[in-house]
Write a structure and sequence with these properties.
By secondary structure, the chain is mainly alpha-helical. It has three domains: about 80 residues, no CATH class; about 80 residues, no CATH class; about 50 residues, no CATH class. The protein has eight helices and four strands; from the N terminus they run αββαβαααβααα. The strands form two sheets. The chain has a two-stranded antiparallel sheet. The protein has a two-stranded parallel sheet with strand order 3-4. Helix 1 packs across helix 2, helix 3 crosses helix 6 and helix 4 packs across helix 5. The protein starts with a helix and ends with a helix. This is Helicase C-terminal domain-containing protein.
Amino acid sequence: MLDDELLMALAVRAVNAITMRPSIYHARNHAAEGESIAFTARFALRYGGKSQNEESARQPEIRNAFNSPFWPFVLASTSVGQEGIDFHWWSHAVVHWNVPSNPVDFEQREGRVNRFAGHAVRKNIAAAHASDVMTSEDPNPWKAAFDAASKTHEDLGEFSPFWIYPGDAKIERQLVSFPLSRDLAKIDRMKEALTLYRFTLGQPRQEDMMEILKRRGVDGAALPLLDLSPPRSAEVASIRTIEETQL
């Protein structure tokens, strides 16, 4: 229910994101011994250093600002940001500055934005079911939207609508490849390894697997199908046996 208390909480969150205080860093001045160069940064965080306690206090502030509709709109991070952090509230694109050494790290990076009820999913649902929200009596607009989405596209299975939903918005993967870089050869190998990794875990995006089969000259439609449906219970199996016997 959107009451005064919730409106005030939203207002405070917006104010904290917009009015984030800057931090002053000091770099060593090699031209003058014993002196330093001061510069101001609003969002940049120093990795390690003497002011680690202060930096730790600013980290959640910057993370909350990024997880809002306000700036910053781009977050650059080292490998420390590829695990345990949720960025899916307002982001659905990941730029890989390098190619990780294994598919697990690759999946962890994209997992920051590819999560339950992520930004891309919500954008697609909002575009498809805005009219359902306006006519619904549910005070929670997102619950009304997801309820309407759950009644459509039943062919997508249990992953819909909270993990996948058709629409223009998608999880974007951007790989930065430099000329003559060894990453050019690693990209294709990593894509195949990532697809096999996801396929082993039974995750969606099986179109990646079909693309690999196509590149290897295998017709996906001619492959035998795997029946992954749960086994029938003993009672149902016995009833079916009796019916077949009577026939």
